[in-house]
Every structure is written in structure tokens, then in C-alpha cells.
Design goal:
Length: about 400
């Protein structure tokens, strides 16, 4: 459903999702609890951000002194660079500013910076933000925004859903620390999973099982999978399930070990009917066992295990080693069998009773009711002790 929702957003050009303050605060608190100095003396860049009413800008401006920032930079896209069906009206804040330019307000992005107390009240906060128009439209791929990226220590934002892959590459090329909001299914992207495997990127502190409510514009196009759900503080909000934070900043939750039962106890006591009394099936095309739920990982199994991608929300790098993923290209060279075209067609006919091709090479395969059956996407892991 999350993938359908975000695909619908891309087709409708609904990239206007605005993050709630409380969600930002909860995530940032997890980093600060793990390391109170994580932002101290740092320059934080918030691109793609509509800083005039962005909660990212508000959070970091309000907490500028508390967390010890050196500089805050927030940039936005020009209205002319957004989909034409998104109306734009300059705010009173902009119109009444001496910087206001009637032409630039449409064609140029904006930049807000915070470095000093401008009001003379001995406090640096949102009232001290200074702003101007960017030279260009604020596209993160421009030389202007790239220079701001290079100046910064940490990049934090909710990038356009339709540009997530490109935005991530934009950040990893200069090896920047960052915190991003993205679709949970992005875990499987070839640009993302290798970073997770190599412990260069991980899931943030907020559980992605909860989904998130985002503020949306009044003219938001509700595709079939996008339902208007409720108002939050008088604003329209739409829930997007399967959304998570991607981070290169440490937090405590990812170092908490999973409490697990032994293989024998799982088979005897597991609350999951797929495991209780049945045990664990072995894949036909990987030297690994199928573990359909993270809590069913057997504590005493030393071999390779295939677990759901939701496991990464509980992944502790001191407890487990990630070996790869069950996928079509066999990028991690873990397959023990590759099915022929004929075998895929025969499996489809046997399972569905009509001609077709069952892409058995796209995932792990088990035998159920004497038929070959693909499982959902799986991450291949093993206990760290087994690697010693």
C-alpha cells in the first residue's frame, strides 16, 4: 500500500507533503539522547523546504542555541518550478519585507539563514532568521544548492517522493551525513540497500510500522489510494503508511538487541502459526531458512536466514550481519539455483492453472502444498557470532 500511495503521488505530481513538528522533534530527540553534542558546532542544511512555514526550519531555529548549532540554512523551490496546478500567493511576511521582488517571488527559490541574534534579545531563534532570494530556482541539482550542500555538515529534509533516488545519490557522492524521510520500499533500491548492508546508512529511530501523517495543500489530488483522513490543528493531513527515516546519524534504538527464543522454543511456543508446530522451511534457491517474522528469528541458528525487510527497523549491527538480499540480479552471489524460463512457466501453470511466467528468480522460493512459491522480499542475515 505504501508503494501504491507513493507511486500515485508521483503520477499526480503530489510532492507537496509537509512534515509535522512533533514527528521531527521525536526523531531528532533520539539522536540527541544518544549524543547530546550531535549538532554542536554544525551547519545544518534543510533543502527543498519552503522555509516560511516549514516545521523543519521552525524546529532547528527554535532549538538553535539548545542544540548548539553553528549555522542553519534552509532553501525552497521557486513556485514556477513546481507543478502548475499548485497555486502560489506570496505571504505577507514576504510582501512586507524590503527584500520583496514581484518577479523573483515566482522564478527564484528562497534561502533562509540563521547564525546570530538580529533582534537584540540575546536569544537566537526563529525571529532571527534572515532571508533572500536564491540566484536560481532552488533545485537541489543546481550548482548553487550543491555549494550549500558542500558547506554543510548535515542535510535534513523530506525530499520530493518522486526524486528520492536522485536525492540520495546527491548526498552520498560527497559522503554527507543526512537524515531523510522516504518510502520504506526504498530499502530495496540498488542505491540504498548496499549502503545499509555496509553499515553506512540505517533506518531512523521512529518505527516505520506507524506510518506518518503529512500536511497537504488544499488542492491536493486524492488518487484512489490517497484518502483524506483527518485534520491536524485545522490543516488537511494525509496518512502515508510505510514511511520511515533514513539516517547516517547514530541513535540508541539500533543498538538494542532483539530478544529471541531458540529454534525449538519458537516451534513450540511461537505466536505465529506459520512457525508454531511447523518449524522453518529451507529455500529451494538459497542456502538459508525462511523466517517470516523478525520476532521468530531463532536465537541458536548459526546459518543464513531470510527475514522481511521490516527487520531493518530492529536491526542491531552488533547482533546480526547482513549478507545480501533475495533479488533477481543476484548481486550478492548467494543463489544456489537459477530457474530456467521453462521452469518459471511450468511453476506458473501448476500454481495458477493457466499459462504465464512465475518469476521464481525474483525472491526466495519454498515448497508449499507441493508447489513452488515465491516469498516476499527477504534480507539475508546471520547472527554475528557465526561470523567469528
Amino acid at each position: 500500500m505504501a508503494n501504491e500511495n507513493l507511486s500515485s503521488a508521483k503520477k499526480a505530481k503530489n510532492d507537496e507533503f509537509y512534515t509535522q513538528y512533533r514527528d521531527i522533534e521525536r526523531e531528532m530527540n533520539a539522536y540527541l539522547e544518544f549524543n547530546p553534542d550531535v549538532f554542536k558546532g554544525k551547519t545544518v542544511l534543510l533543502p527543498c523546504d519552503d522555509p516560511e512555514w516549514s516545521n523543519f526550519t521552525k524546529y532547528f531555529a527554535q532549538n538553535f542555541q539548545t542544540i548548539g548549532l553553528k549555522k542553519l540554512i534552509s532553501t525552497s523551490y521557486a513556485p514556477n518550478s513546481k507543478p502548475k496546478d499548485i497555486p502560489y500567493q506570496p505571504t505577507l511576511f514576504e510582501i512586507e519585507s524590503e527584500v520583496f521582488n514581484e518577479e523573483k517571488t515566482q522564478s527564484n527559490g528562497k534561502i533562509f539563514t540563521l547564525t546570530r541574534d538580529t533582534t537584540g534579545d540575546d536569544v537566537i531563534n526563529v525571529e532571527d532568521l534572515e532571508w533572500d532570494y536564491l540566484l536560481g530556482d532552488g533545485d537541489f541539482r543546481s550548482d548553487e544548492i550543491r555549494a550549500l550542500r558542500d558547506e554543510s555538515d548535515i542535510v535534513i529534509t523530506n525530499p520530493p517522493f518522486s526524486l528520492f533516488r536522485e536525492f540520495l545519490i546527491w548526498l552520498t557522492e560527497p559522503n554527507k551525513d543526512f537524515v531523510l524521510i522516504g518510502n520504506m520500499n526504498a530499502i530495496t533500491y540498488k542505491e540504498v540497500f548496499p549502503l545499509i548492508k555496509d553499515n553506512r546508512l540505517w533506518i531512523g529511530a521512529t518505527s516505520f510500522n506507524e506510518g506518518m501523517y503529512f500536511f497537504v495543500p488544499d488542492n491536493f489530488v486524492y488518487a484512489p489510494t490517497y484518502k483524506f483522513e483527518r485534520e491536524v490543528s485545522g490543516k488537511k493531513a494525509s496518512r502515508v503508511p510505510g514511511v520511515c527515516w533514513y539516517s547516517t546519524i547514530e541513535h540508541g534504538r539500533r543498538h538494542q538487541p532483539l530478544n529471541l527464543m531458540s529454534e525449538k522454543d519458537n516451534i513450540k511456543f511461537s505466536k505465529r502459526k506459520e512457525v508454531k508446530d511447523f518449524g522453518y522451511q529451507r529455500y529451494e534457491n538459497y542456502d538459508a531458512i525462511e523466517v517470516p517474522f523478525s520476532e521468530a528469528i531463532p536465537s541458536d541458528y548459526n546459518g543464513v536466514m531470510g527475514v522481511p525487510i521490516t527487520f531493518l527497523n530492529k536491526y542491531n549491527p552488533e547482533q546480526f550481519e547482513i549478507l545480501g538480499m533475495c533479488e533477481n540480479m543476484d548481486l550478492y552471489q548467494l543463489k544456489t539455483k537459477v530457474y530456467s524460463s521453462t521452469e518459471c512457466k511450468e511453476a506458473y501453470l501448476a500454481k495458477f492453472g493457466k499459462p504465464g511466467t512465475y518469476d521464481l528468480n525474483a525472491s526466495g522460493v519454498v515448497i508449499r502444498s507441493d508447489l513452488l512459491e515465491k516469498v516476499y522480499q527477504r534480507v539475508l542475515i546471520k547472527h554475528k557470532r557465526a561470523a567469528k
